[in-house]
Amino acid sequence: MNHKIKSLKDYIFEYQKSVDQPESFWSKIAESFEWQKPWDQVLSWDFEGPEVRWFENAKLNITENIFERHLNAHGDKAAIIWEPNNVNEKGLHITYKELFERTCKFSNALEAQGVKKGDRIIIYMPMIPEAAVAMLACARIGAVHSVVFAGFSSSALADRINDCQAKMVLTSDGNFRGPKNIPVKAVVDEALEKTTSVEKVIVCQRTSAEIQMKSGRDLWWHDAIEGQSINHKAATMDAEDLLFILYTSGSTGKPKGVVHTTAGYMVFSQYSFMNVFQYEQNDIYWCTADIGWITGHSYIIYGPLLSGATTLMFEGVPTYPHAGRFWEIIDKYNVNQFYTAPTAIRALQAHGLEPLEPYSLDSLKVIGSVGEPINEEAWHWYHDHIGKGNCPLVDTWWQTETGGIMISPLAGITPNKPAHASLPLPGIQPVIVDTEGNELVGNNVEGNLCIKFPWPSIIRTTYGDHKRCKDTYFSTYPGMYFTGDGVKRDHDGYLRILGRVDDVMNVSGHRMGTAEVENAINEHPKVIESAVVGFPHEIKGQGIYAYVICDMVGESEEKLNREIIDTVRKIIGPIAKPDQVQIVSGLPKTRSGKIMRRILRKVASKDISNLGDISTLLNPEVVDEIINGANI
Ligand code: WTA
Fold this sequence. Notes:
The structure is a single chain. By secondary structure, the protein is α/β, with parallel strands linked by helices. It has two domains: about 10-315 and about 395-475, ANL, N-terminal domain (Rossmann fold); about 505-630, ANL, C-terminal domain (GMP Synthetase, Chain A, domain 3, 2-Layer Sandwich), CATH 3.30.300.30. Helices cover about 30% and strands about 25% of the residues. The chain is built from 19 helices and 30 strands. The strands form nine sheets. A seven-stranded mixed β-sheet has the order 5-4-17-16-18-19-20, sandwiched between helices. Strands 7-6-8-11-12 form a five-stranded parallel β-sheet, sandwiched between helices. Strands 21-22-24-25 form a four-stranded antiparallel β-sheet. Strand 9 and strand 10 form a beta hairpin. Helix 5 packs across helix 6. It binds 5'-O-[(S)-ethoxy(hydroxy)phosphoryl]adenosine.
């Protein structure tokens, strides 16, 4: 079980072993898990296909590795500590034994409602323990979960339901988030008007908001589990059977369903959790992500629970009811490892040091960052004021597609270097390439980040469209997985992630495709064309800037601005709302009709000193107009 790296020397040794003999390296780690049948072959792969198979023909169930494997040793240990949004409501300590019983009960309930192995189930729920139970019960019976962040709009939800042809939706009546009481079931109802595959909806009662229940389709969670047994025999899954689909944004088209399979994901999420955070058996670990994102999957649920850890789950937001809420929770539960996003750090940093004063934060041993590049100022603030200068800070780089942390310091082992994700985990072989695909070796080089060898939790396909997976990740640089990120290797050989090199923005740590926001804007009847770019934003990392050509007849700019923002909120959700909308009469285009985004990015960043060559533009005159209208 342990396979825990304990020193830098260990790390160097293990890393080398993982490159020289990847199969024996991973099979040793995998042997500590519980398998119903062992594998015939550790790995077969071909990045051309792409086709990657880990632990071929092995049989297992990931929940047996969370529950049955550990229950004797620590059935009474807290698996999940749940902190509600409302400070006056009592939190919950759910032991492994209790979580197991809840998972079994709900597994039986799902089967009673006709769910079978391989069916897709959408989970659209707030951060409540039942959301974890929902994921684990799907895994237990072999249904494929697809968690959709509960802040997405009904049309974004409908797109995801349709794409994976989900049979069931698991949801709640409402969601307590900060001072708000957000309707959840109503969004599901609206989404289901645009879908046909869903047969049943199970609704967990959380806010007791008034909702509609459609007879024959909708049933309450508490009724569904009524009388169900607390035992359940786990389904037998093949190593490569689908565990989950998670939708994420890319540079083109609609979000795609990233597919993760059972065994490889299990092994890597556990191994990476244990090693990056250096979790010790009685520690309390807290990741502030939402289960709607990959960080919530791998590092609130699977990685920690597979390690027998105590994972804290928080329903609320960092600033409610006050800007010290995170720090209050850390002291309340004596949190040892704390993992959050740079956006949250910057937002809390903006409140100054006063909200920190009542709290000691003495329990903290490790602090972590994820989701976007962390700027040096935020790194130092986090390190000095939260980690009190003596907690290692793990800046973890990874992606929905990688399933687990790829490049990161190991806490207390890898020397810390501000704003550097640092070194690859064992088993991860990053390479830096130039635009032609030549590998840039040595130190002091900068280029695009690729990975040249498979790791156990690599994306297997994009659901229902394998060609898209190949085109997006395996075609830019044949023979390698292309991440979409730029990276620099410094003079010490440490890696620093520079951000996306494609048309994907990173807004408050959320991935958002420019094309996706454009498509939403274009739904407004008065919009003729739009172009969206990211720009540096003090708190969010990147903000969204939209240039829009509209039919202005009978319209005011102010009204259109408001309506355009509202259209995006309705079509995607509040997280995709543009920060700036600028109505323009034209967009700078090349003679072949391509929008010159470079210029739009510069104007949005208020950096017009060097716009480069604009003489090749079809319509150079719009550049001045755009600059004049941008209030620079
Ligand atoms: C960015 C989140 C810099 C990166 C786990 C990546 C980061 C995208 C870091 C994936 C980091 C994530 N430093 N950039 N430590 N972590 N990113 O799929 O651009 O939501 O490609 O996965 O976030 O976002 P995703």
